[in-house]
Hints:
single chain
Amino acid sequence: MRSVVICLNGVLRPATNSDGIDPVGRQLYEALAKQFRVIILDESHAADTEHWLGVHSISGYAKAYTPPADFAPETVAEGRLRMLAAIRNANGADLVIEPNPTCAAEEIRAGYTVMLYAAPQYLMDIWHPDSPREPRAWDEIVAELDRQKKAKAQDTRLNGSDD
């Protein structure tokens, strides 16, 4: 039986709600599970991955691959390729369902057959689950709140003036 690797983040787990499940991603998983041996690829700890899959009643997959504790790739694409190499050696990887266009390009260069899962919630790079997230500086948040208050005060639709 052929194997398909599905990246958990960005296919099953949407970027906009890390605790929820993408309904289209779930349908894709269920359709592929009928014809392929499904392997889940996730960057989280194994226990967290298994918990998330259990909470969302995702079963029937062959294996969930997660990185070892000392795993420290320099880029997301490098980490993905290293994990895919381990999957390919152990189970085969006939098809990869990938939400990250940069990773998809690298995987194709490495000889994988890749299907890019491009959900609309990933139109901006910062919305992608692999995007580095850093908290905004407090001064930046305060400045944005001040800007919005001024814009609201000047909006004639809200304050009833015709200036």
